[in-house]
Amino acid sequence: MQTLIGKKAPLFQANAVIKGNQIVEGFSLDQYVGKQEVVFFFYPLDFTFVCPTELIAFQDKLAEFEKRNVAVVGCSVDSEYSHFAWLNTERNKGGIKGVTYPLVADLSKTISENFGVLASDYDYDDEGYAISTGAPVAYRGLFLIDKNGVVRHSVINDLPLGRNVDEAIRMVDALQHFEENGEVCPANWTKGKEAMEATAEGVADYLSHN
Length: 210
Fold this sequence. Notes:
It is found in: Cytoplasm. This protein is of the alpha+beta class.
């Protein structure tokens, strides 16, 4: 697949659950354009094993994203009704009760396909029947989308590999630092550390002090 970096995030309208308990129709990332950056992440399925650890980890750090004026939105191939049930199941029973950011329902799998994270392909057998190759769920994809609706960062993990939420925050900080200061962020940069100008002189100056 071709990368989405530097391109407009694929458009969609879908059902979703917001605030942990409200099912809405026609949810779209367009509502954030011109207002907020978005961390839009995919996970394989509701009521599974690694997934709740990730969704709860994003909720635990939600205040950090909100402090940076960043919206967090999750998505899987489950229906909005499955999302609703999972959101209203206690955590000690495998649920994610207390998660308040939106969860998008991608039952058609078209959103996952358009973002390049669907873990399966479709083909036809010798008799003309459609068959799925691979798992018909989303990989653990994450996309940082700027206020113009452009994808600026993405990472895609295989199904067994949970993500690091702090790294998502670090990438938000790096993008915002660049947009506010025009300085680029070197390897392992974190907020508050020295960045550098995107010139030969700026690189040399940075390296001489580090």
